[in-house]
UniProtKB/TrEMBL annotation:
Pfam families: Seryl_tRNA_N, tRNA-synt_2b. Pathway: Aminoacyl-tRNA biosynthesis; selenocysteinyl-tRNA(Sec) biosynthesis; L-seryl-tRNA(Sec) from L-serine and tRNA(Sec): step 1/1. It comes from Thermoflavifilum thermophilum. Signal peptide: none annotated. Residues 32-106 form a coiled coil. This is Serine--tRNA ligase. It comes from the Bacteria. One of its GO terms (biological process) is seryl-tRNA aminoacylation. It catalyses: tRNA(Sec) + L-serine + ATP = L-seryl-tRNA(Sec) + AMP + diphosphate + H(+); tRNA(Ser) + L-serine + ATP = L-seryl-tRNA(Ser) + AMP + diphosphate + H(+).
Length: 422
RNA sequence: GGAGGGAUGGCAGAGCGGUCGAAUGCGGCGGUCUUGAAAACCGUUGUCCGUCAACCGGCGGACCGGGGGUUCGAAUCCCCCUCCCUCCGCCA
């Protein structure tokens, strides 16, 4: 959510920034400002009346004590009149505040100055590319075929147990999945991230805090009886841990990591995008989150990018880092880098991580501040995958297939207990 | 799920319906003392909104789990919800 104060002070600049995200409903801003004007006027009137009432009530108390009931009754009469106005104003205020809030929620986050507008994902900027291209045997298979050849992942069984997009991992695949989680968490905690194991179900307030509600309601699984949402990413519970708090500056930066399963409805997806592990409804992911001083958040973003890059490098996968253009960025982000690994057998890039700075877009909703001298200021929140498992697993299987099986990168050997599948 | 008790400032813990944003203690911050520290003593200590000044800050309003109600006036009385504790039931 954008601060209304920003709209008041730098409206034109805000509109220019929003245009980079191809957001054109600038009339919303005018509406907001108009309503805000009205709101402040009403607040002033409301508060003045309350002031009158407070004074009169105190006087009534004195009069009663002095036994002057006649004058007290007269004042009561007067207060009753004010009360009517106060209540009317209060109702108007509640209504207008709700309206403003609702409009404010329709404004996406401002993209960072360095973000190009672009027209589509094709205009994303490739920052750098790394890792070495694998040389595959002639009859290289996509991971879903490798999965059945080596008895690793059962998509059809998952469909029978639940529905499509809920794969069952078996034997070496299950072990490899667990090994990756363990390795990723070790890698993150070694870099100073504190490990958490958060709830997988959250309430509406929590889902609102990170921006899943109201924007992406249909993306989340929902349990009506308890009004709980299944988390689409660990970002949601992790970032909300510090909701409604005022931090000491020396507590920053706060670095958190967690492994969780993630649940996404992914309505409307089809075709090769959803083949195999490319897109599933339940998957494992290790996430990193940072809450940082606003002056340092872009440094932190670079640090997180380097962190994730190091992790992918250690897995010996070919990758590239892409800076998203305005047209492809999420509603909540100010700057996002996507990490993609090349899946040789499918001959396509698969997104395995997305690292973003949200600046104050989330922390305003969550009221996460820090003490800056005499005042409080919002911290910046950032997060990234480190890493999303299914596509990493797909790339590992595909890129490392040889005639005699799948050779795992050395870094994983201590975690898996085996070096080769097949 | 059933019965009872509770929810107050960073923490602990008071609070006859009016002068309570809220006693007291601890903690924090500043100071006196000290070579330094501790102790002692003195002072200070929340958040949000509006408004004026726009450097400090002044003024007004709101906030005692959340929401409604009674009243001229509610932390204090009533109702609903949530959460916590104790007991019973169920259960990994």
């Amino acid at each position: 959510m954008l601060a209304i104060q920003l709209l008041r002070e730098k409206k034109d600049w805000v509109i220019a920034r929003l245009s980079v995200k191809h957001f054109t409903q600038t009339h919303l801003i005018d509406e907001i400002l108009q309503l805000d004007e009205q709101r402040r006027q009403w607040i002033t009137e409301h508060d003045q009346l309350q002031n009158l009432r407070n004074t009169a009530s105190r006087e009534i108390g004195q009069l009663m004590k002095a036994g002057n009931h006649a004058e007290a009754a007269q004042k009561k009469q007067q207060v009753a009149e004010w009360n009517e106005k106060i209540n009317a104003l209060k109702n108007q205020l509640d209504e207008i505040e709700q309206k403003i809030q609702q409009l404010l929620l329709q404004l996406p986050n401002l993209p960072h100055e360095s973000v190009p507008a672009g027209e589509s994902a094709a205009d994303n900027v490739i920052i750098r590319q790394g890792g070495s291209w694998p040389t595959l045997p002639e009859n290289a298979l996509p991971h879903w075929e490798l999965a059945s050849r080596y008895d690793l992942i059962h998509f059809d069984t998952g469909t029978r147990l639940t529905g499509s997009g809920f794969p069952v991992f078996k034997g070496a695949a299950a072990r490899l999945e667990r090994a990756l989680i363990q390795y990723f968490l070790d890698y993150n905690t070694r870099a100073g991230y504190v490990e958490y194991l958060p709830p997988l179900l959250v309430n509406a307030q929590t889902a609102f805090g990170t921006g899943q509600l109201p924007d992406k309601e249909g993306q989340m699984y929902f349990i009506p009886e308890d009004q709980f949402y299944l988390i689409p990413t660990a970002e949601v519970p992790l970032t909300n841990i510090y909701r409604d708090s005022i931090l000491q500056p020396e507590q920053l930066p706060i670095k958190m990591t967690a492994y969780t399963p993630c649940f996404r409805r992914e309505a409307g997806s089809y075709g090769k995008d959803v083949r195999g592990l490319n897109r599933v409804h339940q998957f494992d992911k290790v996430e990193i989150v940072q809450l940082v001083h606003p002056d340092q958040s872009y440094q932190s973003l670079d640090e997180m990018v380097a962190h994730v890059e190091g992790l992918i490098q250690s897995l010996e996968l070919p990758y590239r880092i892409v800076k998203l253009c305005g047209a492809d960025m999420s509603f909540t982000s100010a700057l996002t880098y996507d990490f993609e690994v090349y899946s040789a057998a499918q001959q396509r890039w698969l997104e395995v991580s997305s690292v973003s700075n949200f600046e104050t877009f989330q922390t305003l909703r969550m009221k996460i501040r820090f003490r800056d001298g005499k005042q409080t200021r919002l911290v910046h929140s950032l997060n990234g995958s480190s890493l999303a498992l299914p596509r990493i697993l797909a790339a590992l299987l595909e890129n490392n297939q040889q005639a005699d099986g799948i050779h795992l990168p050395a870094i994983l050997h201590p975690y898996t207990g085996f070096t080769r599948i097949g």
